[in-house]
Model the fold of this input.
Amino acid sequence: MLPLEGVTVVSLEQAVAAPYATRQLADLGARVIKVERPGGDFARHYDRAANGLSAYFVWCNRGKESVVLDLKEATDRALLDRLLAAADVFVQNLAPGAAARLGLGAPALRERWPRLIVCGISGYGDSGPYRDRKAFDLLVQCETGLVSTTGTEQQPTRAGISIADIAAGMYAYTGVLTALYERERTGCGSAFDVAMLDALGEWMGQPLLQALYGAAPLPRSGARHPSIAPYGPYLAGDGHEVFLCVQSDRDWVELCERVLGRPDLVRAPRVADNPLRRQHDAQLTEVLHAAFAELTADELVTRLDAYLRPLHEPGRSRQSQHAARPTC
Done:
């Protein structure tokens, strides 16, 4: 039995954010009824990559049922009401104000069905100067500052996936789970809203704190990390790149002593801790490239793999490394 078996979700949805949220619920066993406008969700026609279907649509809508309703028609609207009467959750990502004009705003729905959980997803929220602007993933990436942190020093770059939609979808998904848990204790439904701008803005918390309290905003650094080193692509002797990530002092010690054979580097003045290593990343890269020049990329990966700390250290059992699981 999946965790959400017996839960019914009705979603008046399109594009990515809401469909991605409800697909997570379907994956957990909820019955998700996708309500599409006449002509269908426009994301069906983004491309034909998945055996003739849109890759976006297939990705976001597996495991659902679907019905096309024209909510301006009385009979179709009555059918939606019958679906909602038996639903636990209602999700919508219509344009701001559209749900309320259709009588599907949260106050109206919860007055009729107090146990219903209502989630609205929008680009910029239901109030404020951007309320009525169309929200596109790229624009939200720009407006939250994400593109200022990606790409190279010369060229900002959009993240390669629909990250603003995904962020909003994930907060909607976790919000629904939280509301279902709350209803188990109180017996009452609830309502909440998620904005793409808020969701991705939260994900930009670390660059924001760096810009507010650091010496300068984080630079765009391509595949390198703007605040951790060594981190990113490094050249092996055959001209191929190997991606290396060192995130702790312990990793740094192991890299120097066991991979590079350079214990003298561990506490060398310019690379003794991570802030220093990042500050002198160009010089550190030269050292690593010199050390890796004698190895092919495959040989370098093999050497790195050989020095990964094993799960079982001599004399330690698996049971001693993990807390005992309670039985249910």
Q: What stands out?
A: Strands lie at 8-12, 31-36, 65-68, 89-92, 117-122, 191-195, 231-235, 241-245. The radius of gyration is 26 Å.
